[in-house]
Amino acid sequence: MEFKEVNKLPIDVKETIKKRVSTRSFLEKSLTNDDKNKLINFYSTLTNPFDVDVRVQYISKETGAENVQLGTYGTIKGAKDFLAITVKDEPFAMEAVGYQFENLVLYATDMGLGTVWLAGTFSRKDFKNIMEVSNDDLFPCISPVGYPAEKRSFVEKIMRASLGSKNRKAWNKLFYLNDFNLTLSQEDTGKFETSLEMLRLAPSSTNAQPWIAVKEEDNIHFFCNYKNNISDDVKKIKHLDLGIALSHFHQTAMSEGLDGKFEIQNIDFSIPENMHYVISYSSK
């Protein structure tokens, strides 16, 4: 399979990744037309390495969806606008969604807008009532988009505390050297250190961070970490999370001047039962 080249984001990607937080409390107003157009026009320029068509629909409670209930089970406060993502079920579909939409999230963050990935805490039926969704479309996630409120709601404070949103797994839980027997120290990462650190900071469903990276010479092999007996829907979210992480890694690598590419490689070392190989990044 050939993987596509994608454009480098026109922002300071490392500082934006550090600045990005999941926003659940918004000012009760829609985006200005200028901000809406800027965001949507930028999305039209985005692609993903997997050559998958990831579609985003803009939904506003103030223009066309005033009388439609858009349920988020009480997790989101004040949001007037939403971005809904659909994709056909094909190889790398979830990785493509994660990669491409996270690039838009980072761009929105640079604009001063708030977002949060929602996969399980929204009513798909409500949103489908006002969307164009084919029977064979996957509808994995949405994100509210708007201006962050100065004060977080009580529900948001509880969710941030329970999810441990500020916490990320340590290097020795995520990164390995040559195989799964030796953890990767930051001293041994070489040119990949910053890219892997930005990957480590990526958001994920319930902050699970289901990704593992193995450095082997000039290659980084990416794996998705989950038990084989989980449902297909949960597996899809795990792969979407990996796509988000790949966005952070790849965009940082490009910003660092690395001239690498994604490819499928033969993995010669032993792979643990719950590790699922997805893709490699090669930079000579």
Automatic annotation (TrEMBL):
InterPro entries: Nitroreductase-like, Nitroreductase/BluB, TM1586_NiRdase. Residues 12-253 form the Putative nitroreductase TM1586 domain. It holds the Pfam family TM1586_NiRdase. Keywords: Flavoprotein, FMN, Oxidoreductase. GO terms for molecular function: oxidoreductase activity. This is Putative nitroreductase TM1586 domain-containing protein. It comes from Fusobacterium nucleatum. The lineage of its organism: Bacteria, Fusobacteriati, Fusobacteriota, Fusobacteriia, Fusobacteriales.
